[in-house]
Amino acid sequence: MKILNYGSLNIDLVFSVPHIVVEGETISSTALVKSAGGKGANQSAAIAKAGLEVYHAGKVGQDGIFLIDLLKSYGVHTQFIQVDDQASGQALIQVNDQGQNSIVLYAGGNHRITRAEIDSTLSHFNAGDYLVLQHEINDMAYIMAKAKAKGLRIWFNPAPFSADIFKLPLDAVEMLLVNEIEGAQLARLPLDTSFSTIVDTLVAQFPSQEIILTAGKHGAYYGFKSIREKGDIINFPVVDTTGAGDTFIGYLLASRVRGFDIKESLRLACKASSLKVSRAGAMVAMPLKEEVFG
Fold it and tell me: What distance in Å separates the CA atoms of residue 219 and residue 221, rounded to the nearest whole number?
């Protein structure tokens, strides 16, 4: 069994601000940090830190070579990351004094992936292998269809959410992983809908898929057919929420691969994301497997 994450790689510019800027406002940043990011890269780092072998596929420009080197340092296999002569993906991130964030994305290399590259990458994986996907790269429908035809087990995090997601072959997905906002949008419900109602609606809407809904300080919810479970966070002081959801996904996958049932997997993934938010940064702040699994 192998794990492929076909996902984004971004250069993050993180501005520390007293509050998230509003329209027409100019504020001063107290700090600026350039770091590695992208939901895809973050999730690969989390999977590797959780103790699993993971292959990352995607595309960067020459400005993103350091992203490849960083993933390698965490043990991620990077031979399927392509490099061209254009700009890598970028993320402008504001982090306020309470640790909450606001993000502006530029796709860059994440939207220059070719079908020839997709076909070449997927040729190295077989039925029963895992494919982890987010919604920050191009040609998602093609990747899903090809992976499904090969028998890969697809875990999909539809973030950032857009109406295009409804056009994807979501019946190919084994696990749908959403936060409370994405879940409400996918279920076509108001954003103030209760978490349990969102999960119930998604289970009815996607009867063959397992559903995970993460809800920040309220923990995480699971639904599949008649099964419902909940995981609770550990109440650590919040320093930076960037990458918390990616950490959760990495450790949830690692827990399931290690053979834990869904209740224990939720507990461990919530523990990992709780540790993450208590530290500044994204990949660098993700816990190691010894901190979560003991």
Answer: 7
**What are phi and psi for residue 218, nearest 5 degrees?**
-90, 0
Beta bridge partners of 61: 84
Which among 155, 183, 167, 169 is positioned nearest to 40, based on CA atoms?
155
Q: How far apart are CA 108 and CA 156, in angstroms?
A: 21
Residue-level pLDDT at 63? 95
15, β-bridge pairs:
32, 94
Residue 25 lies in a domain: no
The answer to whether the beta carbons of residues 105 and 89 sit under 8 Å apart is yes
Give me 17's structure tokens.
Answer: 């601000």
How far is C-alpha 15 from the geometric centre of its chain's CA atoms?
A: 21
Terminal alpha carbon distance of the chain: 24
Report the CATH number that the domain containing residue 254 is assigned in CATH: 3.40.1190.20
Q: Which residues are catalytic?
A: 246
By residue range, what is the domain housing residue 193?
3-9+37-88+108-293
Are 230 and 221 in contact, with CB atoms under 8 Å apart? Answer: yes
Cα four-point dihedral sign 145, 148, 152, 157? positive
Residue 166 lies in a domain: yes
pLDDT tier, 274 (very low <50, low <70, confident <90, very high otherwise): very high
Distance (Å, whole) CA 88 – CA 67: 10
Higher pLDDT, 281 or 251: 251
> Which segments of 42-161 are extended strands (E)?
55-61, 77-84, 89-95, 101-106, 130-133, 153-156
CA distance 279 to 274: 9
